[in-house]
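Appendix B: complex inputs.
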Amino acid sequence: MSIKKSKHFFEEDFVEKIGEVSDENYKQLPPNKDLKYIGKKIPRYDGYAKVSGKAVYTFDINLPNMVYGKILRSEIPHGKIKSIDISKAKSTDGVLDILTFENTPDYNWYGNSSKLFDQVVRYEGDEIACICAETQKDAEEAAKKIIISYEKLPFEVDAEKSFKSENLKIHESGNISREKPDEYSRGNVDDGFEQSEIIVEDTYSTQIAIHNPTEVHCSVANWEGEKLKIWDSTQGIFEVRNSIAKSLGINEENVQVIKEYMGGGFGSKLEAGKYTLMAAILSKKLKRPVKIVLDRKEMNLAVGNRPDSKQTLKLGLKKDGTILALNHYSIANVGAYPSGGGCSWPARTMYQIPNVKTVDYSIFTNTGRSRAFRAPGHVQGTFALDAIMDDAAEKIGMDPLEFRIKNYAEKDQVWGGNYSSKMLKEAYKIGAEKIGWGKRNKIPGSEKSYLKTGIGLASQIWWGGGGPPAHANMKIAKDGLVHVYSGTQDLGTGTYTFISQIAAEILEIPLNKIKVHLGDTDFPFGPSSGGSTTAPSISPAVRDAAEKMKKKLFSAASALTNISEDKLIYSEGSFSSENIKIINIDEIANQVESDSLFTKGSREENIEGIVVQTFGAQFAKVEVDTLTGNVKVIKIVAAHDIGRTLNRQTLENQFHGGIMQGLGFALTEERIMDSDYGKMLNPNMHDYKIPTMLDAPTEIEVIIVNDMDELANNMGVKGIGEPAMIPTAAAIANAVYNAIGVRIKSLPITPDKIINALYKN
Amino acid sequence: MNNFEYMQPESIEIASKFLKKNSSSYLYAGGTDILGMIKEDIISPKQLVNLKKINSLNYIKFDEKEGLKIGALTKLSEIEKSEIIKKSFNVLHQAVKEVATLQLRNVGTIGGNICQRPRCFYFRGDFDCIRKGGDTCFAVTGNSKYHCIIGGGPCYIVHPSDTAVALLALDAKFKISSEKSEKIISAREFFVLPDVDDQKENILKDGEILTEIIIPNSSNNISKFIKVKERGAWDFALVSIAGVFEIENKIIKSGKITFGGVAPIPWVEEKVNTGLTNFKIDENNIEKLSSLAFTKAEAMDKNSYKIPLAKNLIKKLLSEIVY
Amino acid sequence: MKKSDKPINSSRRKFLKGMSSGIVGAYAITPNLKIENLPKEISDSIEGKIKLTIKVNGDKISKSVKPNTTLAEFIREDLKLTGTKIVCNHGECGSCTVLMNGEAVYSCHMLALDADGSEIITVEGLLKDDELHPVQQSFIDKDGLQCGFCTPGQIMSAYALLKNNSKPTDEEIKNGMSGNLCRCGAYPKIFDSVKDAVSKKI
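Resulting structure:
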């Protein structure tokens, strides 16, 4: 083990970290077909806990003597609080305390752009007060009795209008998040367009989508002396620990964050919430455990969303299909506080283009702030990029698939490095075959019937390589059970399961001998679960711990049997010598002193100069009822290069999930705002339309094109959470165009848009 | 959710008397609609008057002569399961299946479905709109995507009930009971437009309770219900259509078409129904008939799609009933 | 637009009156409620709590609750059965699905008092000691879950579906399960799980 500097991508940002890495150089494991557990359809480790109703989520935590906090939020989009009258609320039955900006210190939030309780509210949903009471109902009732008087300020909910506005300043620095656009260029786009024979230009837009995980954001905080214990529904326990410790000015070691099970996050739970800090403050004051649970309306207003986008793309190409230049300009609504809404990474990296220029503006508005949402930027960017790719192909009379292969990027387009692996061509080939690419309409919209079918495709690129630091400890207990500890999270993605598979595979013992412990900051560090990095960061560390344990078992067996290590053969949990079984793991565990069988595993560093990316292509077949405007997705084929499959069953499931969320983004989901009043009109799960089982594609086929990505890490693994979702909406949109012959340039493609496009009057 | 008192009268008379006498008491059947409104603070009842002990309002009866009678407290799922309704009043069966989800149909009643309040997001949201006694319909300058194209003003809601659209096509009648009297009126007379009353969707007065739905025997008819929605289930209609026809050899002898999602009440386009007498089903005639529809519709900023959509549904309905 | 911000003007009163229509609402002119005018049925509700007698997972329970307690709150808070999840609290997602007298219902969107005298089964009630019900086992075998938070509701819907229809068609499964949202999007495998349970002929 040594301490090294290493960098990798996490949710669109380079992160450089200095931490401990494994120095071991393991040979790549054989392909999955030669393995016993890895890659197989192994039932979920946490399946029993979840189907029996016994799994305890943060939402279910109930501590003795616990009290409840309810957050009162702004009902107006922009204003300064003139006064808060909490007197009536305070005298309500059961009320213990009320926090407001008047009685709470200034804890900075969202950088320095807001306070825990800010006198200025900048969107409908901004925190104003937190009422703590004996019961949830008491707190809710008291919240209704707080009287606020505002000085109302001008507001804007639309990014373009806010960008241009002269009388609205949402923050001191203006209305551009991070004060300037994110710009990138390579080559010279002007020259590129000049040399082009064909220019295609268009503007596309995408909506604001809300994560809406099923488990609401919630925290329970409890002080035990100087130590603060927090149960939090989070994707990053260490992030929450560090952030809360920093806010409170206490040592990180004095904060413990726990998350055993979590009901979905999708990016909305990657940062510490104001509610967590409020619970900690209240718990300290009241000397009782405090639970704060958001409600569904708050979930829709205040804990993130996918920013919208208005993207103008200009593509220059030669008649033979060679792309020479691409200009991508975007403007995104990131809400009231700093966040990133850029969506140009697919334009920069997906296809081979010598001259590229991108400009991304992230604009403040008086609406809920955006957060990372499953493949931030890429979902929006891919919709626009793959739409203009199809339009360009049509213009030169080339098959859209052929056009993509013509402009296939063999090398990374931004840094020029070699990919660890890129098998996208194989994905195109098998995907096209499975969807029946040849049967698509040569002339879009040419089918005679009012029911029109169409086929479309889109490509995917995303990092998903993970990196250090990421650790896992392993211990074999006296009873022979193997325990793995890691401070990472299982979001429902299968982390518990694949860890048990890797441990069982390396140690050659049954799965039921493995116990996995996750989601506790008292365990060794694991990174936040986002950016499709959990599996590629943690699985190599688990292997490292297991390989080291195996080594240790050799020395233990030798010490216990007085047979030299080189004469011992290990197989399926037992040591033998000269074909006679001598001792097994259980016996070793029982005979050695406590804590002897303990190993520390770490992720190795990434290889310098090699670019690890995931790739894929999705093909969609749809049927459009041109009388009703309804789109039915008949089939999705997802063919991807995501390295080694750890568990075929959970992998398929996560792909289905990405595709379902992509389908919702393509067809049904949308935050609706009233621009005159700055209020969200559909902050619930009925009017914000998450697809149901009836909306699911009739068929989904998931194909993984490679056995492993040998250069990615010692497990050959890459992430899949985000790759699964990136191309779906774009592929569906292209299929709809192929069906009806009219391009719907804004998502979601709802019946009204199709009807308006087909029946002009 | 604010607290309230809860009572379970054993007869309609007691319920009616109590409702008439006590301010902000609300009748409570399945509760699926009213609970949402209490949770959102749209209403704050002092008392909820649960009718569930009144078993006499839970029935489906059929008689050749008298037709079909459904007690107002009959659960939607019971109607969905009813063989006689499936066989002879299929349009109602189809419409019921389109309501919300199975779990809600297991609780929600037919009476409640007919009398449910609008789903307009301004009405359901934190806006002091006309229907709540304010003086603005926020949809006019705001988001009108789900609002009406005909019959609106000063309020532009659409009536949310799927079953009401089917019942109107079936020429249903409603029995209205109060403490001392009973009356029977046609489904069409039951619903009122906003220019008559902008805060109520129907004619029920204080203390009056919808107790029975009566449908004349129409077992020889062919019927169909189509609902266009944005997701597969759990969605109110963008536009829906119900049709009940007497057909012989591809000729509609007589028929009736009704619409949902277009107006503040379940809607009848007179010209379309007049045109349905001795109507030969072919492409030309269908085209002609649909062009007669919604000529008086007036769209707002975001709901103009409903006009071609509603016309398309006439085509879809008529072409699908013969195949 | 805090309610208290708004003047309670004549239009507000008109609004309340407007609510009188139909089965949903009724309104009376009497401004002040007088206890002696109340029929007997509600007299015991005035104290604030009403007695509820209910059978949950086979156990008979008698408890007094505030009228505004939902069935889901009663199950989770009074009975400490936290398998039933509250997600939307509005009857808009299905995670709180339980069986009431053999039919699937949203426990978050009905009053505990609505279940008075009825028989409730929650996800915990499917277990025999600690052994899974075959429907639960199907959800493990076919991986009909991801984060697991909607899963108890999905399982209860599947159980209700099979209880009332032992041989559902694919369409009937999809319709029967469409009142349960899964934000992780595990629908294909939830569907497979239900199919698997069907094949077990429970």
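Residues 534-561 of chain A form the longest helix (28 residues).
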